[in-house]
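for the recovery benchmark. tokens below, seq after
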């Protein structure tokens, strides 16, 4: 009788335990489902596979990639606009590897695309990786219903300082100019007349925009002999920074020029992967890094480049002359790194979006908080712009016909 009573008490306790904790578990699950963001496209354990990759070349030479999945979730990215057709075709070849796979192990896919061939890197292949990487992060964020920066440990800030066009309405108070003489520099040694003109015009620009920080973009087209004269002659007018004072192909030359001025040097728009930026940092060739999310390796690689730069107390000012995915991806980076400085053309609005980005106020663009990149591409508007890309034609010296830098 005692055994039966004991067994009854055990069964009763067991039943109460199951009811109590089982109900709690059911309640927790119900609460999770009730409170879970509707933005989460699928559950964390649900399967998803890449089903298709498409590319779009626009008339202005922007290149977009769209990755679709069997769950109906799509991701968008952008690639290098030089060699637009090559980038578009190359991204389709990635389908041989990516289609049929879960898109969410983004870093694993980056490694597979980069290391999965005998020849690695290069501008076109890294640009392809950059666009694919953005699209995969976009999908992953949408799967979990969060912006990409939350998947990368952010936010580190709520809004990003931008430069573009000074404007009272937006509060933008920083800009960059690339044409600050009557003609671009193309001689191996431009001489004092050219230098004097550059100084005079920049001084007038500073007077026109009092209180505005103005950077000067040499665009890698100025030869070292002229660049060394310009950086010293312009110093009294306090440029914000000098960008691409010379081509980044010879980092030692840039490092030598950096020693000759107290104005910060910036570079990065033609440098790709962490390995390219390592030499810039080690040789102190620039104090400000400007990687391009469409070219340097995507969101995955920019996050790592930022970490390397942080060890050298160098900030990031992401390069961005491109479209809405480029800006959105750059803003996601700004929101997950500690050493973000400023976003190029962060005040630019894009008519390819179904919904505008959060407006710029007091010189800052709020970080998009919607899932993935935080934007929605209007595919009808995008298709209207698809066409033959604008060519980048070879530049020549008008005096002797020799080839000059673009």
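predicted aa per position
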């Amino acid at each position: 009788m005692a055994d039966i009573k004991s067994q009854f008490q055990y069964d009763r306790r067991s039943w109460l335990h199951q009811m109590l904790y089982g109900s709690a578990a059911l309640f927790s699950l119900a609460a999770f489902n009730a409170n879970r963001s509707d933005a989460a496209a699928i559950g964390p354990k649900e399967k998803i596979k890449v089903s298709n990759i498409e590319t779009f070349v626009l008339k202005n030479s922007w290149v977009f990639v769209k990755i679709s999945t069997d769950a109906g979730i799509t991701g968008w990215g952008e690639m290098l606009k030089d060699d637009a057709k090559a980038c578009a075709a190359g991204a389709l070849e990635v389908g041989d590897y990516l289609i049929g796979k879960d898109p969410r192990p983004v870093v694993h896919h980056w490694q597979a695309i980069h290391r999965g061939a005998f020849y690695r890197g290069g501008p076109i292949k890294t640009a392809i990786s950059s666009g694919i990487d953005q699209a995969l992060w976009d999908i992953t964020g949408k799967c979990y219903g969060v912006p990409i920066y939350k998947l990368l440990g952010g936010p580190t800030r709520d809004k990003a300082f931008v430069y573009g066009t000074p404007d009272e309405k937006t509060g933008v108070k920083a800009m960059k100019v690339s044409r600050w003489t009557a003609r671009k520099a193309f001689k191996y040694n431009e001489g004092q007349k050219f230098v004097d003109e550059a100084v005079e015009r920049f001084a007038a620009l500073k007077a026109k925009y009092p209180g505005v920080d103005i950077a000067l973009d040499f665009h890698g087209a100025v030869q070292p002999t002229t660049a060394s004269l310009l950086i010293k002659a312009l110093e009294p007018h306090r440029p914000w920074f000098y960008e691409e004072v010379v081509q980044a192909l010879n980092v030692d030359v840039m490092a030598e020029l950096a020693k000759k001025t107290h104005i910060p040097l910036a570079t990065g728009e033609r440098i790709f992967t962490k390995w390219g930026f390592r030499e810039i940092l080690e040789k102190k060739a620039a104090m400000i890094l400007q990687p391009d999310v469409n070219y340097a390796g995507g969101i995955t690689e920019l996050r790592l480049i930022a970490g390397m730069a942080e060890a050298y107390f160098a900030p990031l000012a992401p390069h961005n002359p491109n479209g809405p995915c480029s800006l959105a991806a750059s803003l996601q980076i700004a929101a997950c790194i500690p050493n973000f400085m400023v976003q190029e053309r962060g005040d630019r609005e894009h008519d390819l979006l179904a919904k505008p980005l959060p407006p710029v106020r007091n010189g800052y663009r709020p970080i998009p908080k919607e899932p993935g990149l935080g934007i929605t591409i209007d595919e009808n508007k995008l298709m209207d712009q698809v066409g033959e890309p604008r060519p980048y034609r070879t530049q020549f010296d008008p005096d002797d016909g020799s080839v000059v830098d673009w």
